[in-house]
Amino acid sequence: MQDEIALMPVSPLEEYETLITFPTKWDFVLVCDNHTPNSEKDCMKKRFLEELRGKGFIIKMIKNEKLFYGIHAPSGLVRKYHGLLRNPDNELEDLCVEQLDEQQEIPISVIRIRLVSFILQNTEIFGTKENFDDLKKKKVFETAFPLHEKEKLDISWDQCGDILYKERIEKIRMYFGEKIALYFAWLSWYTCILFIAAVPGIVLLIYGFISLSPVSKEICAANTTIMCPLCDQKCPFWQLSDTCTYSKVTHLLDNEGTVVFAIFMALWATVFLELWKRKRARVVSKWKLYFWDEEEEEVAMELINNPEHGTEEYHHSYMRSFLVLILVLFMICVLIGIAHALVLYRVMVTVIFTQSNSEFFQERATTMAVLTGAVLHYLTIIIMSKVNRHVALYLCELEQPRTFTEREKNITIKLFTFQFFTHFSSLIYVAFFLGRINGRPGNYVRISGKWRLEECHPSGCLIDLFIQMAVIMVLKQTLSNFVEYMLPYVRYKYRRLCGKNKINSKVHMEETAQDPCKEEWLWNYQLNEVNVFSLFDEYMEMMIQYSFTTIFVAAFPLAPLLAFINNVIEIRLDAIKMVKLQRRMVPRRANNIGIWLYVLEAIGILAVIGNGLVIALTSDFVPMQVYKYIYGPCEKKHSSGVDCLTGYINHSLSVFDVQDFENHTDLVELQDSMGNKITHCRYRDYRNSDDYGYSMQFWHVLAARLAFLILFEHVALCIKLIAAWFVPDVPRRVMNLNLKEKRKNLLKRLREVNDSTDV
Fold first, then answer.
1. Which of 621, 656, 685 finishes a domain?
2. Overall domain count for the chain
3. In angstroms, rounded to a whole number, what is the distance separating the alpha carbons of residues 583 and 575?
4. What is the pLDDT of residues 110-120, one digit of tens each?
5. What single string gives the DSSP state of each residue in 486-517?
6. Confidence band (pLDDT; 50, 70, 90) for 458?
7. 224 shares a domain with 104
8. What is the residue range of 748's domain?
């Protein structure tokens, strides 16, 4: 009934008396310092408030250490809003009810907050054309926020388990608007579908664990296979059997089921998006927003704010676009350069560990380099994420977007691009370049003519990618989420603690008894501030996680499981943070997740390409198949009781004469454990033992890799297209309901036309 009063035609005095009776009806609170009277800031503040009063706003001031201005918009705003966007004769009766059923509109308080927020941001001081953002930059105002409604915070949708139910999504919509409700609807749907992807990943690891690998057996038994040193100085020769444990771990990831799992994940990504489109269509159709036009709403709010102010038209500058493109490419080059710096770091750490006096570090030099490199990569992600945001905002300002929606779209594209290269440049190097551009014994590629480029782990390149992804994903989903929740919690508790004594003071209690608004406004002010990036950051975090879950999932089958566990916790933390630790977000309308849907589709295509490249180039799956059918014992008809991969390791290692090392006189060990002199060592490659040129097997394997890559990507893309065609974006039931609604509206208009014609 409180909102019913707001719709009645009342005078400003009667409306003010209503606010005294219902103190929670203040739409927004502005906060500023106690400026010196008649100072420049004080004058600008007064002029801005006068502009609001001129538009019919009622303003109330409460004085504390800071000045709080509660503002209440005229009740006619909501009538204008609905009059412009829909037929008011059919809607005004429903708008007089605060608690509405699922087929009706959201409460008026949500609409009022959205309208007031728009007017605040677009009200300009007469003569100077300065808006609220300009005044914030000049420290005239500190902040502005809508008030939480404590009676509605008792809906308990922040408790464990509740958020997954559609009834809770509806309550979120009633309080925070459709945009945040759609985020939680998408996140809950994504989390449920992740469980389906996590199960095959676990099955793949179990299969790799219980299946017997002749390759691992051969490595573990290779006590007499002497491998070439991993560095130039003080690096000993070592036995291939030293990598027995790592070879078993590699088999968990790299086995016959990896290809099937990669194709499944490509299909999963497509089905996930198609099913989400169907769910979204059902949800927004129930909300009667299926045909909602965001641009029309923005124009309507512009007219409500100032009918005399013309709508800014679309514009495009080729010069600005060219400049932005150049700067984006430059930023991408910087991010790739950082990835190269990480490569240099791993090279140096490998040399340091292998030359150390500790046998423990010498034996684990490669693994330690990859682990510490992954941690350093995580630190660069944290630092560059902040830099990327500032750069994306600057580039967006260069483009001069017309509306908030266009600005959000431009920032999303640029920031996601920067974040993608920040997170994946190093992984791309590990997956596709590590161990392939480092040369060979006797002719290594060196950085600055000094340090050898690092090689793949002796058990294969896939284990390096697995370690890198595992470290980054675990750190990102533990430390980052811990900081994301604990930092607002600690900040909120600190602000509450600082204000506790003042709140409990006798003077404050007397003032609160006289004006109950004061305590409520102070409590809202002590909550953590939100901005336009609060929801944006949540989406960005999920998009990066989705990239980890799909693009290199062939190397890290546990990624869907880790993402599922993280999201189950993330949903609860986001809900608690929004209702208990943060100020209320401005409710916004939406009928989809916006540009993020196109980001998801782009990631799905990259997932097909990335997994195909991982299996074709990084995994040993293709070389094993070539050996099995061309060079192995089965091809030579000697397969009776012998596994077809028997002898693969010996066949995949090339032979090198130690006398051909550039520094063979500096090698520390020229005898094996039996006291025999070492004359030859082995290394991973397909080269001849005489001239070290590529062998015929190298070209067979290369051709097979390329053929597999083309076949895999075409098959996976075809499956994606078939799945996208097979699963309609919009359920037929929703389409039929919309069709009936259109017919109903047209019949009504036809009757009106016929009645007017008869008259």
1. 621
2. 3
3. 13
4. 888 989 999 99
5. HHHHHHHHHHHHHHHHHHTSHHHHHHHHH-TH
6. low
7. no
8. 732-759
